[in-house]
Write a structure and sequence with these properties.
By secondary structure, this protein is α+β, with helices and mostly antiparallel strands. The protein is built from 23 helices and 14 strands. The chain has helices at residues 34-45, 54-63, 74-84, 94-101, 118-122, 135-150, 162-186, 192-203, 214-226, 238-247, 257-260, 267-284, 286-292, 346-355, 358-363, 369-373, 393-406, 412-423, 425-439, 457-462, 471-475, 477-516, 539-558, and strands at residues 2-7, 13-18, 29-31, 48-51, 70-73, 188-189, 293-294, 297-298, 301-303, 313-316, 336-343, 521-526, 529-535, 567-572. The strands form four sheets. It has a five-stranded mixed sheet with strand order 3-2-1-4-5. A four-stranded antiparallel sheet has the order 12-13-11-14. Helix 4 (94-101) packs across helix 6 (135-150) and helix 17 crosses helix 18.
């Protein structure tokens, strides 16, 4: 059963029951308190909720202690459908979808609010003019989406199973939005004391008055001294650094770390250390700690589907870039554990499953994929001579696979790719075909139907000459633009499918954790890694749930493939001890 939701301006709203195909199954009901109404209906019926935006509505429900099992996020699904139609980036709101279906002017999506948008839906003290949702539009847009998904099987590139796979994508994307909101609400266990101690050990005591920490100031002084007594260099100023190196007889094009490492000067190691510590101080120093950690929890703002490949982003807090040095601050509560799990070599395994290359798939049926493939690189042109002679066969296999997926084509990668092409032709051709499609301006899709953005008008104009254009065009910016898009689509088919798999894992794991009780909670997710905060006595059950969820995700996406997706799992008290 489904229930459509329309949020009002001052806490009320409307509900309407729907059949599975999206047609109304009863009249709309105005409710004075939408949170209470949803909570009561969830406990009584556990329907799939159909609402405009999980990010806008669900946080308020969580604050009131209401959690739901399933939803259909109209905005996220509209974005997926627009992308599938080659219209990525067009407005995706319910009002936009409604207007588009009626041939009316399509309103732009509202910009992200400066504070959580759900407050405007329920807070009587909020005077901002935020229009209420229209229940008729919610119902109509959902029904249109259901018809569009069902119609995918009839498209030339659809075929049997296309509609079912896309329906799975829509469900997984919507479930991911629920997980994102719940993780932001529950927070990642974080010890402010441990964080402060780590910063103090690396930077010195917390400074005041906008001064540099003691360690950074010491490095700044030594950097200036390394250039001579008459030179003062601010290490935070790239212009001053470039000028100082030029005066010392070392002109360099930039202050990037890889450029600095090629310079023989005593200031270089000091600058490299300064850059690393300054980055930590700026991105995750005491100011970050004051802003993002409270009550023993780090509560970031996740953006489900925030990247074109389906990966997540954050709108604050930098949860996707927790420095390894600070993982010691992620500490389980007393009597609780962190179950840390990540998928081993996920993207190469995804490629093996996608390509259906028998030899490659058989290798991916083992624990260490690179080791299983290494026999192919014991001999042949990729291992015969050159710098690759110093690499182990396993490292050669890894370099060849990464080059195939990410578009490497110079140096040793060329020889190693030749081995990969000869031994695993179907896997090699799968990504090559995606690259060729991208270079021709075509769209490529993930296993479930997530679609890459079309090339821009500027790209099409630049590359319009094609293969028949002048040689100088094919060697110049046009050729560079073609190769760049080919590299993007080559990786998209793999990375986006890996994101599909990870979302299916999340949805399955969330369901299994709920079955274990109210306490085990997903508290972190990054591409192919999850952390569950759980009572210590349930840690073994949580680990089993993770493995079962990985297997379910494999089966949902790839059916009977022999490729395995092993999860490396550690039960620890602190994140730093997991790896």
């Amino acid at each position: 059963m489904k229930v459509a939701v329309a949020a009002g301006v001052r806490g009320g709203g409307a509900l309407r029951p729907l059949a599975e195909d999206g047609t109304p199954a009863g009249p709309a009901e105005d409710v004075p308190d939408l949170v209470v109404a949803i909570g009561e209906r969830e406990r009584a019926e556990a329907p799939r909720w159909v609402w405009p935006s999980t990010a806008r509505l669900y946080p308020r429900l969580l604050d009131a202690g209401v959690r739901v099992g399933r939803c259909h996020d109209l905005e996220l699904v509209e974005s997926l459908l627009l992308g599938h139609a080659g219209r990525y980036g067009e407005p995706r709101s319910v009002r936009a979808a409604w207007a588009r279906s009626r041939g009316e002017p399509v309103p732009a999506d509202a910009p992200p609010p400066e504070k959580p948008a759900q407050a405007s839906l329920f807070d009587d003290d909020d005077e901002r003019d935020v229009p209420a949702d229209d229940i008729a539009q919610v119902v109509a847009v959902h029904a249109a989406q259901q018809r569009a998904i069902a119609g995918l099987a009839g498209e030339p590139e659809g075929g049997p199973g296309a509609a079912g796979r896309f329906a799975l994508l829509a469900a997984a994307e919507s479930a991911g939005a629920l997980v994102a909101a719940e993780m932001g609400h529950d927070g990642l266990p974080w010890s402010a004391a441990e964080h402060d101690a780590l910063l103090t050990g690396l930077l010195g005591p917390r400074p005041s008055g906008g001064l540099r920490p003691r360690r950074l100031q010491d490095l700044a002084d030594r950097i200036s001294a390394a250039f001579g007594p008459r030179t003062h260099v601010n290490p935070d100023s790239p212009a001053q650094i470039l000028k100082a190196f030029a005066a010392a007889g070392h002109p360099i094009p930039s202050t990037r770390a890889h450029v600095l490492r090629g310079v023989d000067h005593p200031a270089v190691p000091l600058l490299l250390e300064y850059k690393e510590l300054a980055r930590l101080h700026t991105a995750h120093g005491w100011a970050w700690l004051d802003t993002w950690v409270s009550g023993g929890r780090f509560r970031p703002e996740y953006v489900a589907g925030g990247v074109v490949s389906g990966r997540w982003a954050t709108s604050g807090g930098g949860a996707l870039q927790i420095p390894r040095v600070l993982r010691g601050a992620v500490v389980a509560d007393p009597g609780w554990s962190l179950v840390v799990a990540d998928a081993a070599q996920l993207e190469p395994r995804v490629l093996a499953a996608l390509a259906g290359d028998r030899a490659f798939a058989e290798a991916a049926a083992h624990g260490d994929l690179y080791a299983a493939l290494s026999g192919a690189f014991d001999s042949g042109p990729g291992a015969a001579r050159g710098p690759a002679d110093g690499m182990s066969p396993r490292d050669k296999a890894k370099l060849a696979l990464l080059s195939a997926m990410y578009g490497g084509g110079t140096g040793e990668a060329v020889r190693l790719l030749a081995v990969l092409r000869n031994r695993f032709p179907d896997a090699f051709e799968y990504v090559e075909a995606a690259a060729r499609a991208g270079e021709r301006g075509r769209l490529v899709r993930s296993r479930l139907g997530r679609t890459c953005p079309p090339p821009s008008a500027d790209w099409r104009e630049l590359t319009a000459a094609g293969d028949d254009g002048p040689a100088e065009r094919r060697r110049g910016p046009a050729a560079q633009a073609l190769r760049s898009r080919g590299r993007f689509t080559r990786n998209f088919v793999v990375q986006a499918t890996a994101a599909d798999w990870a979302l299916a894992l999340l949805a399955s794991l969330r369901r299994r954790l709920t079955a274990l009780g109210p306490e085990p909670r997903l508290v972190f997710f990054l591409h192919d890694e999850v952390i569950v905060h759980t009572p210590a006595g349930l840690a073994a059950d949580v680990a089993a749930a993770v493995r079962a969820s990985a297997e379910e995700a494999r089966r949902l996406l790839f059916g009977g493939t022999p490729v395995v997706f092993p999860m490396e799992i550690a039960v620890v008290d602190r994140y730093a001890d997991a790896k």
